[in-house]
Design goal:
39% helix, 251 residues, alpha/beta, 10 strands, five-stranded mixed sheet, globular, Nucleotidyltransferase, domain 5
Amino acid sequence: MLYVGIDIGSTAAKAVILSDDKSRIIDRKLMPSGWNSRQTADDLLTWLLSHGYSREELKITATGYGRVSVPYADSTLTEITCHGKGAAFLGGENLTVIDIGGQDTKVIVLSRGKVVDFVMNDKCSAGTGKFLEVMANRMGVTLQEFFSMAEKGHEIKISSMCTVFAESEIVSLMGLGTPREDIACGAVGSVVSKVSTLVSRKSVSGGYYLTGGFCECPLLVEKLGGTLGSEVRTCSDARFAGAIGAALLGK
């Protein structure tokens, strides 16, 4: 029996296959969630079966916004539980997990591998991946290009607390001839500021560990650590934390 975790988020869908003793990751899959979670779930099943496994050999647990769209899952679990379990697997049992997702940001406090507290941002895209995606689109670049520009810029303050107003603010800055690199750097700094404010609402435990799609963005990790006054650890597999946790919790 192999254990599979599927995490269909608002922006990206992730799947991992764990060994029968749940000690190592055999394979992983990352793909856009698209507009139809059911189709995405079917595509992930096709990927799983392409490895030569039969459905009977796989214990599948789903999580994320699209977990209800995985009809073949043996069980479904909430994101908080799965992200906490996955982060503990990757980074240790006593952590404050910061998950910056496409639609929301979560801060999860772990003690001995268990979730003891958590907080999520309000229903606003500011401080999430969507904020940076909107800013990159406004500047006519990809997210990767956006981060590359930000690394070369000097941070300027983006004062608007709302994504819509912040976009208007950026248009004004572009009209004034502000370097794109400085605007991009300011946008990243704005997200870091909002995430740090969210973290301050909880009593942290252990060190900080970043999960989500920005785990491979050195600039954001560095700025977040500087604002929090402590190192923020992460790794390339941290974007799969939810899927890893789901697989680990599969019975």
